[in-house]
User: Fold this.
Amino acid sequence: MVNLLRLHLNESPYRLPEDRLERVLAGAAATLNRYPERAVDLLRERYAAYAGASAQRAAQVGPSPGQVVPTNGGDEAINLTVITLRPLVRQVVVLTPTFPEYSRAARLAGLDVVEVPLAGQDYHIDLDGLSEALRRAPSLVFVCSPNNPTGNLLDTLEALDVIAAAPGPAWVAVDEAYWEFAGETVLAELDRRENLVVIRTMSKAFCLAGARLGFALAAPALSRQLETARMLFNVDALTAAVGAAALDDPAYVRDVVAAVAEARERLAAGLGGLPGIVPYPSRANFVFVRTQRPGPDLARALALRGVLVRAYPDVPDLLHRLRVTVGAPEEVDRSLSAFADALGVPG
Ligand SMILES: Cc1ncc(COP(=O)(O)O)c(C=O)c1O
Assistant:
């Protein structure tokens, strides 16, 4: 069977250290006759400590465990945010192109979706366009930084100020699924913004996409609302224990981030050297590229060579774009060879 290289979902090629995992699973298995609230409380404590360290700016204290709402991946944190705020807003504003789950969750909740396209070659936020959109109705805005799929950091603080100045009520969810790769977070803003939700995941830098662990963090009043809307026991004891163990000593995340940064630059440089491919600068674990050949076409040619990448056949503006996850060093070699071969570059 062909060993397909999965570079289409921004997963990590690395894994949580195995010995740690085995110890945790054995310990957690012994408590499976109980409901998981203790395991989940430990997870909250560990994530609050980790998040506090990441928010470390000046005298910031960081979130309390009560401000950390655990979810079944970042996807559930997105849904939970929409469901919690649904009675208070009429529209969800998305800065496109971005992660499609925001619009999906909004439509499922019966809310209007308003798109404010990112502007320019560098995909920056159109702050005037955002301000205009906020005038229409009470809003929930999603800001993804680094943004999927474009890979750049957005001017999130400027956007928060525009949202704070909106004429009507406005909330904002900042999705920091890839924040570890860029090292920039707005978490410190939770201290002074009642309308902010920060969404995190352990699927990316923590290498736990299969475990399904995410978080919504907010100021105390809003986190209590999120907690009320959360399905009781949405995170099971085994998953919570795996997450807590990963957070017990997250030093491996630094190694993952360093390895991804090195491989990312090599991948981007290699892709940039190929005919008809122009990579965008990336602060995440993937590289977004412009392609002369239609993206879905090239993605098919790569799949025939055993490499899966993300194309956007249903998004007219992205017909000539692909997103390629940064793999382990040997996977970068393999993906570059597949691209060269698919583009007819002599080997
Ligand atoms: C921007 C963004 N947010 C959230 C997620 C959801 O991740 P998960 O549900 O695995 O935590 C992803 C996954 O690719 C993502 O790209």
